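#struct-pred
JK: can someone run the complex with 2-acetamido-2-deoxy-beta-D-glucopyranose? inputs below
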Amino acid sequence: MLFLPALLTTTAFVPSIFAAPSRTETAKRATCTVDSAEVAADLSGCSSVELTSFTVPNDTTITMSFAEGATVTMTGEVTFASTVASGPLLTFQGTNVQFNGNGMMFNGNGADYWDGLGTNGGKPKPHPFIAIEASGTFENFVAYNTPAQAIRVQPAADIGPLIIDGVYVNNAAGDADELGHNTDGFDVRGTDITIQNSIVENQDDCIAINDGSNILFQNNVCSGGHGMSIGSIATGDFVTGVVFSHNTVSNSMYGTRVKAQSAATTGAVSNVTWTGNTISGATKYGVLITQSYPDDDGTPGVDTPFSDVNFVGDPTSVTVVEDAHRVTVDCGNCAGTWDFSGLTVGGGLAGTIVSGDATVRQMTVDVQVRHTQSDMHAQIQGGSF
Ligand SMILES: *[C@@H]1O[C@H](CO)[C@@H](O)[C@H](O)[C@H]1NC(C)=O
Ligand SMILES: *[C@@H]1O[C@H](CO)[C@@H](O)[C@H](O)[C@H]1NC(C)=O
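RT: done, structure tokens with the ligand placed:
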């Protein structure tokens, strides 16, 4: 009995020594509500973040640097006023961030800027709109009416994988009078990146992969733009280990491209796989693999070798409109055996296959949508598709 008070004291004392969080831990446990650009600028102490509805004023950009492992949710729309700031207007940083947009939008007010000239002239357009420099998962948000390029995906080195899931880049309004331009969906540089279950409605590349490795683009829908691209590869850009799986591309100028700038002096593309994609009604080229960029099919450069380019597994089906080309390969420096057995093409015109040292193993030409039997015969004889 004499011990009881001591025991009680000890018991009561234990939690205050051993369970009391340090200052840092206390801070990290905080749930922070972001309701202004100012609050958004200091989130390092927040393990949980709620983004409510607010407007980002003119001449202001936001960098949200999240604590490691932070959980972020959106409960309102974040609107960017017309701004003279340069992009990115919104940057996400952090390691293993779990970001769920709950279907809410970041509104870029693109129509205030769109003049048909994109980033080539006219009114200055902040770009990209959003930069994701974090690792973790970013899901279920909308990038709406972006002034030019929508989302730059460029995680910092060595911070782990990044998954982008269920994101909707909605620049469909930019189709009106062809005012939206250079509104790329995702511009990617980095390693261990997955983009899936997302929708891009825009007027330029759905995705453009410019540098990096182990990049998976799957179950996405691309509409209105320039399809799924690697490049354009510029000097010093190296891309390897890309898979395009089960995506749908419609109403687009190109279905899918690998493009290197003819003037690039170093760089390479290797190990690219397409499987189970559906590309329909491309208006210029179904598949274009070229080292002549910015020309589609011109005088290719020789300093950015392409190798191991394959359409395999589940068939990738490609149709093009009348007067568009199904498949063109325009190589100055290509090598290896390219397996196109998982590629089925139809409609339009044959492209030309100039594959240099690479051997292109056959694809299937769907006679149902071809013009005439003799046309087919002539093209297969001529080595084009
Ligand atoms: C934004 O701010 C700049 C000055 O920083 C000003 O020139 C411009 O008119 C402002 N834009 C709007 C839409 O208010
Ligand atoms: C090709 O890329 C895939 C996907 O990133 C990867 O799993 C595979 O190991 C790569 N193959 C080679 C030979 O590098």
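RT: quick notes.
The CA atoms of residues 107 and 315 lie 37 Å apart.
The longest strand covers residues 207-218.
JK: thanks, will look after standup
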